[in-house]
Amino acid sequence: xxxxxxxxxxxxxxxxxxxxxxxxxxxxxxxxxxxxxxxxxxxxxxxxxxxxxxxxxxxxxxxxxxxxxxxxxxxxxxxxxxxxxxxxxxxxxxxxxxxxxxxxxxxxxxxxxxxxxxxxxxxxxxxxxxxxxxxxxxxxxxxxxxxxxxxxxxxxxxxxxxxxxxxxxxxxxxxxxxxxxxxxxxxxxxxxxxxxxxxxxxxxxxxxxxxx
Length: 212
Description:
Blueprint: H1 2-13, E1 36-44, E2 50-61, E3 64-73, E4 79-88, E5 97-108, E6 114-125, E7 130-139, E8 145-157, E9 160-169, E10 175-185, E11 188-197, E12 200-211
Antiparallel strand pairs: 1-2, 1-12, 2-3, 3-4, 4-5, 5-6, 6-7, 7-8, 8-9, 9-10, 10-11, 11-12
């Protein structure tokens, strides 16, 4: 049960697969029409469990991303798939805010049932950086609501983009973390995060490959 709850927390954070790795807090951005990307990242949770996530995303229409995530825990732990539709409500503008909705479902592969969720995301260009926030309402297989909320500040510094963020979820310790990302080749990004949840370290390493 402890591992299941831990993976549930990672899954709610993983609604941010479209958040622009390595953010955990989802943003209101989507790909341009016809553009796809694949995120692959390894994570260590506060309880020590390790997961591998592979998340392809494709934008078939303007303002719409379709996302699939496979989240697999090492050493025989929980395994799940997420399927998301992210719809941008307003287009990004300089020194302004834009918004997006996310609808999704999680299918557990070892009998833990299915979970659905909806999220509202906001991204605001503040001139000096970007402020992201996301409110997620998730419903587990028993019909219980498991809400979470996150806020992040993202800042570009030359070739690097850094962020600081906090994510809170009912029945879980809040997560506070930082991250860095950088393009190393055309279309290929390397990234990493480090943070604390309940006094214990959490971190991740990943890539994002974008193509048409």
